[in-house]
Amino acid sequence: MDVRPLHTQQDYEWALAEVARYFDHQPAPGTDDGDRFEVLSTLIKDYEDRHVEIPQADPIEVLRFAIESMGKSQSELADLLGSRSRASEVLNKNRRLTLDMMRTISAAWGIPIEVLTPHYELARDSA
């Protein structure tokens, strides 16, 4: 097997290219190609965990995206939060999401709570 540790960006790009060859026809587990695919995938994940920083999304942008992509509405968010004005204040960054709000939204819409918890600036803080 011609697999090697990934120490550099060039090693990483090589591994990505190798794994990409398997995307259309993923090899069966337990075969030589299947083992190679699994080892390369593990090496890539490890390299990304150590070297690739994934920025946290703004929780309010996550809510806006959820409303748009899940076919939800601001009225449905208002129902979850208890009032239209509260939903509007949250979406306009005039009010922070509370832990209870995060839990309610997460349970109702299936959004992982950890994407709703990062700190974000309120509108008045950025003015």
TrEMBL record:
<dbReference type="GO" id="GO:0006355">
    <property type="term" value="P:regulation of DNA-templated transcription"/>
</dbReference>
<protein>
    <submittedName>
        <fullName>XRE family transcriptional regulator</fullName>
    </submittedName>
</protein>
<dbReference type="InterPro" id="IPR001387">
    <property type="entry name" value="Cro/C1-type_HTH"/>
</dbReference>
<feature type="domain" description="HTH cro/C1-type">
    <location>
        <begin position="63"/>
        <end position="116"/>
    </location>
</feature>
<dbReference type="GO" id="GO:0001046">
    <property type="term" value="F:core promoter sequence-specific DNA binding"/>
</dbReference>
<dbReference type="InterPro" id="IPR010982">
    <property type="entry name" value="Lambda_DNA-bd_dom_sf"/>
</dbReference>
<dbReference type="InterPro" id="IPR039060">
    <property type="entry name" value="Antitox_HigA"/>
</dbReference>
<dbReference type="Pfam" id="PF01381">
    <property type="entry name" value="HTH_3"/>
</dbReference>
